[in-house]
Write a structure and sequence with these properties.
Length: 422
């Protein structure tokens, strides 16, 4: 058995992987027109290359966790950090991005979310019920345990990796063996599906519509995100970028303690929840007091750097051989639920939101986090807005809905289904 490469290689490869994605999108503009994000293209191509090498007899795999204190300190409470716990390499990047989501959400926009916020939150809650019901029904039809259907439902699709791991002990107690491994595999399937399908759904919904702020035609050269350009834009901000970077770091560290407290209360919430909530609170206080020192534009530039790095590291490290070996019943349940989710987004959410540009971006975002994760949703929305113009309401309301609010309703839905079939 060949030992995996150090996780640090993934960090070194992140920028080349992003450059690969940019190169492919510029050479194949049809992918850009379908709003496939740069890190998704580069990361999955790299994973595919590793898979082909594995089939040729050369094993290429990467470790996922590191215990170096200088990397884990920011995302770990000090009482835990002293023991040098191993953490996922991409965790600081993930939490940093969600901190930006919190700090970058103007209170007035969230309070004015109105119809869009209600439609997304209620709609995703209904989607959670639908995914679990469909998962259970498909599982029953093929002779699989009903709990497997729920595990391949909102637990891993709407919920993602964090929710899957948080609920794994309860599923095992209810009778589903290896719930953690099943949840991780199903959530990974959802991550890939969401990364690949959310953007094309948005492109299909907005087909034929004029670009926001201009005519624009289908023959125009598509806009491809440039990671190097985003880094240069951030660096050009100088002291403002440094100040906001330090603010993000402070929120990450303080948020680690908030998450620690939430864990002690027995709440199964993602690791980024503390920093996300703290970011919201800081931004709310800042806006309510009428201050002007927090610049949402600078926060957005930090997010534009952290998100592609996180996705590049995450997708490049995927073992597609493990994903390809997902058991038949799981694959069938997941495939049906992905199709149902896309159909629900297009037939229910899109009309309710008004069938305009903002609605298309928000619907793609819901599909992104309803199948994969909030990070893939934001990446798809970013690709759409680069192509078709800004959608400030959608890009402000979707991240907190998928990253925080839905966890408050999805968890009780999962618990109710476990109790019903357990």
């Amino acid at each position: 058995m060949t030992a995996p490469f150090s996780p640090w290689f993934l960090l070194l490869l992140a920028v080349p992987v992003l450059l690969l994605g940019e190169f492919v999108l510029r050479r194949l503009p049809v992918l850009a027109r379908f709003n496939i994000p740069v890190p998704v293209v580069g990361g999955l191509l790299f994973s595919l290359a590793c898979l082909l090498l594995q089939y040729s007899g050369v094993t290429v795999s990467f470790g996922s966790k590191v215990s170096e204190g200088w990397w884990t300190w920011l995302v770990t409470p000090d009482t835990e950090w002293l023991a040098r716990p191993a953490k996922n390499l991409n965790l600081p990047l993930l939490i940093g991005f969600f901190t930006c989501v919190g700090l970058g959400a103007p209170l007035r926009t969230l309070l004015g979310g109105g119809r869009m916020l209600a439609v997304l939150l209620i709609g995703t809650t209904v989607l959670s019920v639908l995914q679990n019901a469909v998962g259970g029904a498909v599982a029953g039809a093929i002779g699989a345990p009903a709990l497997l259907g729920i595990a391949c439902g909102s637990l891993t699709l709407v919920g993602g990796h964090g929710t899957a791991l948080g609920f794994a002990p309860r599923f095992e107690q209810a009778g589903l063996a290896s719930a953690a491994a099943i949840g991780a595999s199903a959530a990974t399937f959802g991550l890939v599906a969401g990364a690949l399908l959310a953007g094309p759904l948005g492109a299909w919904l907005l087909r034929g519509q004029r670009k926001a702020g201009g005519a624009g035609g289908a023959t125009e050269k598509p806009v491809v995100a440039s990671f190097i350009a985003d880094v240069r834009s951030l660096a050009a901000l100088g002291k403002s970028a440094v100040f906001h970077g330090l603010l993000i770091a402070v929120c990450i560290k303080a948020g680690a303690w908030v998450s620690f407290g939430l864990d002690k209360l027995g709440l199964a919430l993602p690791a980024y929840m503390g920093a996300l909530v703290l970011g919201f609170i800081v931004r709310a206080i800042h806006d309510a007091a009428g201050w002007r020192w927090l610049d949402g534009g600078v926060i957005a530039r930090w997010a534009a750097v952290l998100l592609p790095l996180f996705l590049a590291v995450t997708l490049a490290s995927l073992n597609l051989a493990d994903l390809a070996s997902v058991a038949g019943p799981m694959l069938m349940i997941l495939a049906v639920n992905v199709a149902i989710t896309l159909l629900f987004a297009a037939v229910v959410i899109w009309p309710l939101l008004g069938r305009d540009h903002e609605a298309g971006v928000a619907t793609a975002g819901l599909a992104g986090y309803g199948i994969g994760s909030t990070a893939t949703a934001v990446a798809a929305m970013d690709a759409m807005t680069r192509q078709r113009g800004p959608a400030p309401r959608a890009t402000t309301i979707v991240p907190p809905t998928g990253g925080f609010l839905i966890d408050l309703t999805n968890a009780p839905v999962i618990s109710a289904f476990i109790k019903a079939v357990g």
